[in-house]
Amino acid sequence: MSDIRLDGKVVIVTGASQGLGRTMAVGLAGAGARLVITSIDGPRLAEAAAEIAGDEGEGRALAIEADITERSDCERVLEHTLATFGGLHVLVNNARRLHRGHPSASGPFWQADHEYWRSAINTNVGGSFLMAHTMTPHMIEQGWGRIVNISTNIHQFQRANASPYGVSKAAIEAETMIWSKDLEGTGVTVNTLLPGGSCDTGVPGRTGRPGQKLLPPAVMVAPIIWLASDLSDGVTGGRYIGKDWDTNLAAAQAAEGARDLPPFRVPD
User: Residue 62 carries which DSSP code?
Assistant: First the structure.
């Protein structure tokens, strides 16, 4: 567990009703942050908020049922965040759409249902853009902010039958690289974080790659706390792998060990 404190920080985590999003939200709250958690799954979102309240006390988490593909919902999240907590410092773009078992989730691209494809891209890529587009001006105005885009292993970008999910995550990583350059000199940083393998998130039918064990979702907690903190000032455009974060090291050393090469490299 990280000993970094986030007291005074307000963090939005999308897709926080279960899985990695919920684990990160609980961990961030444990480090002292106040949380705004969003999802389209209202009942599970309420359970996540209750878990944070049980661990950290009432008033530490605001649950907002919202569809991040709708601009009006993103604006509503910002309005309620500022009205409730008086600020915003960190956005964690974690929400995704991946219907396991759907024929279009694991087949060749030419057999995909175009509505499923559109829905996945609209959520995973468009939703991340809309949330960042809505929240970033506030961060720029205050001269400090964090955007963390949650991604997946590079092999998903190129293995057979991995679209639209792999396509969407490759696009999100490109968003990190482009946005980090757009925001140079503003005090707002953009980085990518991924677990480094399949995680045991309690989703039925979830299995790792052959010969690999599922990772605990907690591998995301220490790096997301560091990325949300003042200790990561000036660190932008990076790609960090949760399972490679050594919690026995000082944060700066752990971050260096967990930093990966960018997925798309352009010759100088």
Answer: E
Query: What tens digit of pLDDT does each residue of 7-20 get?
Result: 999 999 999 999 99
90, two tokens: 């960190």
- Distance between CA 254 and CA 216 in Å, rounded? 18
Is the pTM higher than 0.85? The answer reads yes
Would 1 be classed as within a structural domain? no
**φ, ψ at 137 (rounded to 5°):** -55, -40
Q: What is the dihedral of CA 98, 99, 103, 109, to 10 degrees?
A: -10
Q: What is the mean pLDDT of residues 24-31?
A: 98
User: What's phi and psi for 37, nearest 5 deg?
Assistant: -115, 135
Residue 267 covered by a domain? no
Between 212 and 166, the more confident residue is 166
CATH code where residue 225 lies: 3.40.50.720
- Annotated catalytic sites, by residue? 165
Alpha-carbon distance 122 to 252, whole Å?
35
3-state secondary structure at position 19: helix
Instruction: Specify the residue for token string 């039918």.
Output: 205
Counting the structural domains of the chain, the total is 1
Chain-centroid distance of CA 151 in Å reads 7
Q: How confident is the model at residue 77 (pLDDT cuts 50, 70, 90)?
A: very high
Polymer length of the chain: 268
The predicted structure's pLDDT at residue 192:
98
